[in-house]
Amino acid sequence: MTDVLDEITPDDTTEAPRAPDTVNWRRESAEGRLTLWLDCEDTGTNVISEAVLRELDTLLDEAKQAQPDVLVIRSAKPGGFAAGADIDGFADLRGEDAVKMLRRGHDVLDKLAALPVTTVAVIHGTTLGGGFELALACDHRIGIDGVKVGFPEIQLGLHPGLGGTFRLTSLIDPVEAMQMMLKGSSAHDRKAKKLGILDALVPERHVDAAVAAAASGELEHEGGGFRASALRTRAARSLAANRMRAESEKKAPRKHFPAPFALIDLWEDHGGDAAEMQKAEIASFAELLDSTTAQNLIRVFFLRRRLKSSGGREDGIAHVHVIGAGAMGGEIAAWAAMQGKRVTIEDVALDPLGETIRRATRVYDGKHLSGIEKRDALDRLMPDPDRLGRARADLVIEAAPEKPGLKEDIYAELTDAMKPGAILATNTSSLPLASLVDAAPDPARFAGLHFFNPVSKMPLVEIVSHDMASTETLDRLAAFTVGIDRLPARVTDYPGFLVNRILAPYMMEAMLMLDDGHDKAEIDRAALAFGMPMGPVTLADQVGLDICLEVGKSLQQGLDTPVAAPPDWLRDKVEKGETGKKAGKGLYDYDSEEPPQEPADDPDQGVIDRLILPMCNAAAECLRKGVAPDAETIDAAMIFGTGWAPFRGGPLHYARVRRDVPDVLRSLQDLYGDRFAPDEGWSDLG
Question: Domain 3-hydroxyacyl-CoA dehydrogenase C-terminal: where (predicted)?
């Protein structure tokens, strides 16, 4: 939290009584100012639900009768104004039911926009989706330092549906507005002010003065500028729309992601007429809601929430000590400190400790922390060359190189150093916990805490159990993961654990395809066309061919269906130092070529099947072996741990929808060998 948000506490806001006949709003009236505090019942986060809007409708009627000088809408939640619309409320709606619900919501926001008194939204923290649309319906928006506004609906396969499409494009430069909606990007406080979304950006202590300025007509809005006027004609919009379509097609092909193109069509056809754009927005949103893409992406939203709910509440971890200041250890330390934990970090050399601080600064800048927030996070992150944190930490995270002997030596040193009750977690990605547990100071308080690189961008963390790990330890680690804003996936000790076990065939099969004469760019572009965030050849270079070689070797044993063996030339490249992007040369030569970024227009389905179906098969194996508790955890782990084509719903969901995966695997087995043999678990999946 920023220090500004700390000023906004429930004690400040909940003194206002609940408005009569409402459970989501508080009402406060003083000296010509009526303030409606949004305070959704039984939750720490506001969402814009049908009940919230229905209650607001009644309150607006009362406000129209009362005729205050100014109506202010604020949030009583310290974390932000509103996280968006209530997805539970519309996920199952279809057709005319969806249209009716949307019209009711539009009627309420139209009533707010037409209210014959000055209306001001005072917004702080997270202000997204439906919450942003509520703010846009007001005459003025006053932002409190640290506010973040945006429309993430595109990530659900949708576009704004409560007036955002026509209100934002009318308020600011329409091309900027379209880019925000097409990318699902957020505008942080100063950018939002510069764009014209905010009429004022102030600290909490100046809010009253800013509201008074709005009430007296002294708060002016700058408008959309010259480009807004230039784009009033359809011909002018068409030129911009065609450029937007071309850019969208590169990143999200229309056949997989219809929402960006529906939004562009909306603006091109009706951007000069708010009333017509409103009608078209409602119809378009309802149609998109019924699409396979939107239904799968909404499913992903619920998968995220499900993972988060598995974390519990209390972790009892205030101090984290990280052993190993390499790329992973440094990012883990930086992220934990950013999320409020006290962190110490040690390494055998001093230079990596200095790089940890530099890395943390880059992470914090990328996350748009204010100067005060960044200072406080860096104050919590302490290089510890003397290893004093070992004895004080509630959680010790070992992030040393993947060498069993080295890890065992570290654990031996920790046996008498760690305080009673402290947990030791290893970030290993390839070593079985069964081979390390005997060296741990207390096997019951030892487990895997497997982060994904980069920690600041990859939300998943595997909580890896073993036979002697206590339930309390695993529960605390899951709660810790949620507490640092990551998603815990509970998995068992298995070669590659869950994500790497499923992902490894993707990269190793690509290497065998290179042996078969396939072009590396063709392979990558086919994977991109399927929806993977990165082709397997590019991914191997990104991970490092040395690591791919070790993972490939480690997965040759202990699996029912082994991963393809690493080819001899991979070992040769590693020995020559051609280990991928970090070395400037791997499967691609980064001095002379760049991996493809655009998907293939007409990909070879045979190439896609060779890359994707072994992952589905591995997922079936992991489900059958109990590596994860259920199919939903497996799908979620692959989406949040690797970016696996989210609009397809995850590897097991994709296989269920496709239905012919075991048959195609048998055909591939006949062509290429037993690594494609369908897992026996398919019979249970239906």
Answer: 496-590
Which residues pair with residue 210 across a beta bridge? none
- 264 plus 405 within the same structural domain: no
Crossing angle between the packed helical segments 327-338 and 371-380, to the nearest 10 degrees: 120
**Could you tell me the strand order of the sheet in which 319-323 lies?**
381-383, 342-346, 319-323, 395-398, 423-426, 446-451, 460-465, 487-492
Q: Please give the Cα distance from 633 to 56 (Å, whole number).
A: 38
Whole-angstrom distance, CA of residue 205 vs CA of residue 464: 47
Residue 545: give its domain's CATH number: 1.10.1040.50
Q: Is residue 303 assigned to a domain? A: no
Q: Is residue 65 pLDDT above 90, yes or no?
A: yes
Give CA separation, 130 vs 133, 276, 280, 429, 501, in Å: 5, 20, 18, 40, 39
pLDDT > 60? residue 594: yes
Angle between helices 351-366 and 327-338 (to 10 degrees): 50
Q: Which of 492, 513, 534 is the last residue of a domain?
A: 492
Domain count, the chain: 3
Average pLDDT of the chain is 93
Residue 194 lies in a domain: yes
Please state, in angstroms and rounded to a whole number, the distance separating the CA atoms of residues 418 and 431. Answer: 23
Q: If you average pLDDT over residues 289-295, what whole number do you get?
A: 95
- Residues 269 and 388 reside in one and the same domain: no
Q: What is the pLDDT of residue 686?
A: 63
**Dihedral-angle region of residue 531 (phi above 0 means left; psi in -120 to 50 means alpha; beta otherwise):** left
Could you tell me the pTM of the whole model?
0.89
- Please state the length of the chain: 686
38 and 97 share one domain: yes
- Domain end point (choices 492, 509, 528): 492
Catalytic residues: 429, 450, 462, 500
124 touches 184 (CB < 8 A):
no
DSSP-H helix ranges across 557-650: 568-575, 605-624, 631-642
Distance CA 264, CA 181 (A): 10
pLDDT tier, 223 (very low <50, low <70, confident <90, very high otherwise):
low
CB contact at 8 A, 225 and 124:
no
- Residue ranges making up the domain that contains 555: 499-685
Instruction: Give the CATH number of the domain where residue 15 resides.
Output: 3.90.226.10
Tell me, yes or no, whether 444 and 541 share the same domain: no
User: Rounded mean pLDDT of 555-571?
Assistant: 89
Residue 19 DSSP symbol: P
